[in-house]
Design goal:
Layout lengths: L30 E8 L2 E2 L6 H11 L3 E7 L3 H11 L3 H9 L5 E5 L2 E11 L11 E10 L3 E7 L6 H8 L2 H4 L3 H34 L8 H18 L3 H9 L7 H67 L14 H22 L4
Parallel strand pairs: 3-7
Antiparallel strand pairs: 1-2, 1-3, 4-5, 5-6, 6-7
Helix pairs in contact: 2-3, 6-7, 6-9, 7-9, 8-9, 9-10
Length: 358
């Protein structure tokens, strides 16, 4: 009778033989849009990044714009191979959490922008107020690659506005770079307007008598303003370099628009600095208000303790076990003691209220 070979067991696989290999996700899953633009017009049809770049080189004009959302290392490596991107910015684009910066690799530019979004919240609640994300932009003579991290960093509206303005889009990849920077700085302006409303509401609340605003809410808003400042302020230098750098692959007309973006960014940075100073003053005012309230409470407590000390002292004296004490066996001694106690307590109550201690 032939022997049946044992069935191999897969129990414990991944411990002795190592982890199972990870199946790479197709790059198309990370691509939001890929289009070829020639003379400001979008060419019809859908292309892969390689096909789009081949079309541009075949025509000898135009550029391809590829939009990615949270690509992994494998997907970003494939895009880098198509456009010849340097490995250092490619690594930054995968891992994110970068400071705003501008780097140049030969004829290519790599710009990092931090995006912000205002989160609706209750003024008295301690919760997240500013949500941040990132947009990385690779700019070459024949391409633009945008990498987004975060759910509020969509660029669909920017693409549509550019496509509706072929004259602007005809300026090339630099026009896309300007449009994205302008979109991000405009979002800074919107967020700072919302933060300004919160600061004004907190100022009114703090200086309102008997308000219930907790100091923790002011601390939370100040922390969010600090996060906003870290996202916004470092972008000043990249915008200055882009608007003034004549040796960069950015058309002169685009640099003029970028100077306007830089001016708006400077105004936003100044407002954020004002928010920080105002919140610091509010914290000092709120703490002073708490201190005054504590002093008032302590005066009230001390006043009632002083009033209660009179009957306590009297009861302590007459609670002693002595035979020879004044009025101990007098018929009206008990009544007289109460009259004296109430008289002294009433006098203290009148005096303390007259001096605004009670």
């Amino acid at each position: 009778m032939p022997q049946i070979p044992p069935i191999p067991s897969f129990r414990g696989r991944g411990k002795a033989d190592g982890p199972l290999p990870r199946i790479p996700v197709p790059t198309a899953r990370a691509i939001i849009d890929c289009a070829v633009y020639v003379e400001g017009e979008r060419l019809p049809g859908r292309n892969t990044p390689a096909e789009g770049l081949a079309t541009v080189r075949e025509r000898g004009a135009g550029f391809v714009w590829v939009g990615l959302h949270t690509p992994d290392q494998h997907q970003m490596a494939e895009i880098a191979g198509v456009f010849g991107l340097h490995e250092l910015p490619v690594e930054d684009a995968v891992h994110a959490r970068q400071r705003p910066k501008l780097e140049r690799y030969d004829d290519d530019l790599f710009l990092v922008l931090r995006t912000v979004k205002y989160v609706e919240h209750d003024l008295h609640a301690v919760s997240e107020i500013v949500e941040t994300g990132e947009i990385m932009v690779f700019v070459g003579r024949e391409f633009v690659v945008t990498v987004r991290h975060g759910e509020h960093t969509g660029l669909t509206g920017v693409r549509r506005e550019l496509e509706a303005n072929p004259q602007q889009l005809a300026l090339g990849p630099g026009a896309v770079l300007h449009a994205i920077a302008d979109h991000v700085v405009d979002s800074y302006i919107s967020v700072t307007q919302e933060i300004e409303s919160d600061v004004e509401e907190m100022e009114e609340e703090v200086f309102t008598p008997r308000s219930r605003l907790a100091v923790e809410s002011i601390y939370q808003l100040k922390r969010e303003v600090v996060e906003l400042r870290r996202a916004v302020n470092p972008l000043a230098l990249p915008l200055q370099v882009l608007s003034r750098g004549t040796d960069l692959p950015v058309p002169k007309e685009v640099r003029r628009y970028l100077r306007d973006v830089a001016d708006h960014h400077t105004a936003v940075a100044e407002r954020i600095s004002d928010f920080d100073d105002a919140l610091s003053s509010l914290i000092n005012a709120a703490l002073a208000k708490v201190t005054v309230q504590q002093n008032t409470d302590m005066r009230k407590i001390s006043s009632w303790v002083a009033i209660a000390a009179v009957p306590t002292m009297t009861a302590g004296i007459y609670g002693m076990n002595f035979d020879f004490m004044p009025e101990l066996h007098w018929k009206y001694g008990y009544l007289m003691v109460w009259i004296i106690i109430l008289t002294i307590c009433g006098g203290l109550l009148y005096t303390l209220r007259r001096n605004n201690w009670l």
